[in-house]
Fold this protein.
Amino acid sequence: MEQNTELFEKIRKQFDFGPYPRVPIEKTPEDEFEKLYLHNLTTAYYIRNRQFISPESKLILDAGCGSGYKSLILAHANPGAKIVGVDISEKSVELAKLRLQHHGFNNVDFFTLSIEDLSELNLQFDYINCDEVLYLMPDVNKALQVMTSVLKPNGIIRTNLHSSLQRFIYYRVQKLFQLMGLMDDNPEEMEIGIVREIFDSLQDTVFLKNSAGEVEKPGKEPKTDEQILANYLLQGDKGYTIPELFRALEDANLELISMTNYRQWDIKALFKDPENLPVFLSLSLPEATIEEQLHLFELLQPVHRLLDIWCGHQGESQPFTPVSEWTDEDWQTATVHIHPQLNTPQVEAELKQCFQQLRPFSISQFLPITGVSPSALDITVTACVIPPLLKSPQSLASLVERWLQVQPLNLETLEPNEPEEIFKHLQSLLSGLEASGYVMLVQGS
Ligand SMILES: C[S@@+](CC[C@H](N)C(=O)[O-])C[C@H]1O[C@@H](n2cnc3c(N)ncnc32)[C@H](O)[C@@H]1O
């Protein structure tokens, strides 16, 4: 085992002492819609190729699964998939096993194993989730290479690194406590107590105390033991920048698919008038590579703790035409899918209520995605589009037909609605729903 060093043992001990996350075993993620959306394979595959795939029978690895809460989210979000979890902390693996069992998921396997030894499983995965782990590993490139070697062709890895620009203050705090010897062995209750005492005794004007948010304020909760361990005393924690992330991907023959929270990495949104940028930028930005644009963003606005990405084998992404550039012919041959995370009994129950009370359907309530404005669909529009999509994917022609049945007359003129007009109307409606993540539009099928 390559990582069998002093650091490896410290990390293992730390998570045996406090398996992460400390989420009660009974807690279900069923109402954590955004997390389910993020962990749903269909989301990532659509973003990569604008294709729709079902998670049925797919093999998913949760690499560094911890206490298994994310494995549980993966299992909920991907019905019919098999989940395999590995972690170096035996205590965490035990908890993960219990958790999935408690929630009735049997198509799962957990192993006490290092990511570096993944080849021992003799398995190839469709999707690898490696969340909040990579930044602890001594050799990120090596870890990515190993994961690449067990990723099927067209498979997708979701992983993340800590941002050195966003977390700079925590790295400074960690240095301080390393210097004091608090991280020489595994930090436990005693070390956590010492950290609290030191911050309490410092003057509020001390830079480190202030910047770490340790100055008491009304209504502000003190950090929990878990937060102290995960930030101030985290063994092996390292920070990275966008260029460093890109070099690590290149080294592992991987390519970026997208930031998972790509809607929050928009440089233009940082400007007062996004459509009227300073001339230098309006000329240079369109020429900049994705790496350059993301790096520019993190320098201007280092607000994201994680550089959280989907990536895949180099050269596998298939070209597609963005919906905004589709011709009428593209629309005519397209298939509309509702996001599977919206195809739930809760949505059906809410729709029933909306139809009975003739009130708008607040779609974003069931799929709230950060960066997407809350939205509600008018009840007639809802009736035209949502029920058929919940039954099966639809063509534009079938949605036009349904629209003409639900609303045969033009509301303004009371003349019969024209199919061509409805076709245009649907194009604009579906483009908006697609940009928000609620529907997926697949070309030529
Ligand atoms: C911060 S926790 C994240 C747990 C889980 N992925 C989550 O996001 O909730 C990091 C986990 O990575 C595990 N870990 C660290 N190095 C590892 C390695 N080389 N192989 C497998 N797991 C590792 C730790 O034991 C710990 O459970």
About this structure: The longest helix spans residues 419-436. The radius of gyration is 24 Å. Residues 136 and 236 are 5 Å apart (CA to CA). DSSP finds 18 helices and eleven strands in the chain.
